[in-house]
Amino acid sequence: MKESEAADPRPYHHGDLRRALVEAAVRLVEADGPGAMSLRAVAREAGVSPAAPYHHFKDKSELLDAVAHEGWEKLDLAFQAARDAQTSPPDRVRELGVAYVRFAIAHPALYRVMYDCSRDKADMPAHVHENEESAYRRVRDVLVSAGADPTDEVGLELATIACWCAAHGLAEMTSFKQFNALKAELGGEDAFLRGVLGHVGVFAKGLQR
Amino acid sequence: MKESEAADPRPYHHGDLRRALVEAAVRLVEADGPGAMSLRAVAREAGVSPAAPYHHFKDKSELLDAVAHEGWEKLDLAFQAARDAQTSPPDRVRELGVAYVRFAIAHPALYRVMYDCSRDKADMPAHVHENEESAYRRVRDVLVSAGADPTDEVGLELATIACWCAAHGLAEMTSFKQFNALKAELGGEDAFLRGVLGHVGVFAKGLQR
DNA sequence: GGCGGCATCTGAACGTTGTCAAGATGATCT
DNA sequence: AGATCATCTTGACAACGTTCAGATGCCGCC
């Protein structure tokens, strides 16, 4: 646990407390769930007083924002790997979704924090949606490469959103007990995810399949 | 404040406190958000001591379960109206989704509580999923009436889940600012919802569209 | 090289929360 | 009428988020 890339503001008294706090917070969230992550516990974990965090975050919610940010970056890595996977374009749409949901399954509490933060601000992090290399854009591009009409700007946008919504919905519901029987019948959770998200491959109306 | 329909267990000291607590809780959740709903505030609102709720709910989370239950029933009403609407079967799949998301938009805090409870237990309320008249079954039936193959049990189940996931995802993301431009371009939120969920109509592979 | 200033951290405190145990209250049943 | 038991209150506890006055140690400036 020693990311030694130093380029950040200032290692004053503690070294780099801000970072330490975020790391402790992520650890606590992933260990005991988002509800169990208290500011005081984070401070305890980092070995500082309960008031110390307030010099780096104005709020508990601002700490959670930082945790969420960390989460989005981890998700981006998983996403990138799926984009580069060797599969035919229509399947790649599906596999992008599978990677997305797998991340949510692997980091349930982190995923929850990510979306709770986004929803409170009614806003996704800019780097997820806006720039050229964003995850959102990546879905769009895969849809195009799978045969969606690239001139239908609006339709493409709607299809991308539909894909994202389906993946997010599945991410939040995949652990429901109701689906256990079906998962077993299909031979595992992965097959289940592919089964559901296979329907996403035909989202964009022009897609062959 | 005098709902005088009495048919419930026992109006002992207070009348029917349990009901009063749930109603107060729903009110507080819808007014100030789920985070602002404290047990003590609910008790205050109902005019009882902070410890009184513990004779009706073993936990705060059990009160929230009751709130969620209330929410699912309201959603069911909205759902029923959409099912009975006069539209062609393929559109009805979409309109079911629209009604779902509209409910989530109209009662954001309640909707949040509903899903937070479900997720904590990894379980949807039984009456939503299991019986013959459940909302889940209703989606399935509409898919069939829209042309999905009724003999492909597994495929039908997967399509139903995909629809539900897309609707849930959209419900949680529809308020994101990123979509404002697109909503404007399409001429309103409803058109946006139809645009996204129109892609759900082609979920079931056999659907004509 | 000392000094002032400032970012950083501590200590103690306030109000609020969820929860519990012990006692008061009052409806119901024999 | 008196016992019983669910119901509600009182009072308390630990934990939480947040604030504020003060201690601590790093920085640049003279």
Task: Please specify the SSE layout and strand pairing.
Two copies of one chain form a homodimer.
Chain A: H1 17-32, H2 39-46, H3 60-83, H4 89-106, H5 108-121, H6 126-129, H7 135-145, H8 153-173, H9 180-186, H10 189-198
Helix pairs in contact in A: 1-2, 1-3, 1-5, 3-4, 3-5, 4-5, 4-7, 4-8, 4-10, 7-8, 9-10
Chain A binds a DNA duplex (30 and 30 nucleotides) through helix 2.
Give keywords:
mainly alpha; 10 helices; homodimer; globular; DNA-binding; disordered C terminus
What does this structure look like?
The structure is a homodimer. By secondary structure, chain A is an all-alpha fold. Helices cover about 65% and strands about 0% of the residues of chain A. The first copy, chain A, contains ten helices and no strands. The first copy, chain A, has helices spanning about 15-30, 40-45, 60-85, 90-105, 110-120, 125-130, 135-145, 155-175, 180-185, 190-200. The radius of gyration of chain A is 20 Å and the shape is globular. The interface between A and B is large, with 42 and 42 residues. Chain A binds a DNA duplex (30 and 30 nucleotides) through helix 2.
